[in-house]
Design goal:
heterodimer; A: about 110 residues; mainly beta; 6-stranded mixed β-sheet; 5-stranded antiparallel β-sheet; about 0% helix; about 55% strand; globular; B: about 120 residues; 7-stranded mixed β-sheet
Chain lengths: ~110, ~120
């Protein structure tokens, strides 16, 4: 059974710090990796995706992928209170899959 | 650009009543469509997905059903709601076909409370 593991948190960081969110996955055939942000009471919003090993940067967000170690991480630089949310990791395999496997999410709290 | 509409936003229904939630997608053809449920403080539970009109795959056997009467319309139904059906229902779409690079995009969700 495919699994995607995330620490549920909460992860608490001060404003301006770097928040580091981690995700491990069990399926070595996984090819696509997504990060979603979900504010309380709202639906998940796609914020990053990564397909290749290494880093991918988009503004204050950096996704890091290491397929050999089967982990993907999301770094948020200069964290703001508005970044406080639950972050969901999703993983999709290759070979005709339509269904991503979601982690249960990590709660991030950025305090002023 | 693509947009997804989901309604209603909130719903309060008595136990035993029927349910119909609707979702439509604009700006793309033959999308993959999904229904998820998220219980309070819990992860996403996939209920149904569809890769084409009339094609529905069920992930969780229960008193819910789904239909796809048109290419970009996905409906979640129940004949008789249970208390355990309460939750946050999310419709999502992705580009059609086995495109493993395509992420899911979620609607705004429907918060269902069964009383």
């Amino acid at each position: 059974q495919k699994e995607v593991e995330q620490n549920s948190g909460p992860l608490s960081v001060p404003e301006g710090a770097i928040a580091s969110l981690n995700c491990t996955y069990s399926d070595r055939g996984s090819q696509s990796f997504f990060w979603y942000r979900q504010y309380s009471g709202k639906s998940p919003e796609l914020i990053m995706f990564i397909y290749s090993n290494g880093d991918k940067e988009d503004g204050r967000f950096t996704a890091q992928l290491n397929k050999a170690s089967q982990y993907v991480s999301l770094l948020i630089r200069d964290s703001q209170p508005s970044d406080s949310a639950t972050y969901l990791c999703a993983v999709m395999e290759s070979g005709g899959s339509y269904i991503p496997t979601f982690g249960r999410g990590t709660s991030l709290i950025v305090h002023p | 650009s693509q947009t997804i509409h989901q309604w209603p936003a909130t719903l309060v229904q008595p136990v035993g009543s029927p349910l119909s939630l609707e979702c439509t997608v604009e700006g793309t053809s033959n999308p993959n469509l999904y229904w998820y449920r998220q219980a309070a403080g819990r992860g996403l539970q996939l209920l149904f997905y569809s890769v084409g009109i009339g094609q529905i795959s069920s992930e969780v056997p229960q008193n819910l059903s789904a239909s796809r009467p048109q290419d970009r319309q996905f409906i979640l139904s129940s004949k008789k709601l249970l208390l355990s059906d309460s939750g946050f229902y999310l419709c999502a779409w992705s580009y059609g076909g086995p495109n493993y690079n395509s992420p899911l995009h979620f609607g705004n969700g429907t918060r269902l409370t069964v009383t």
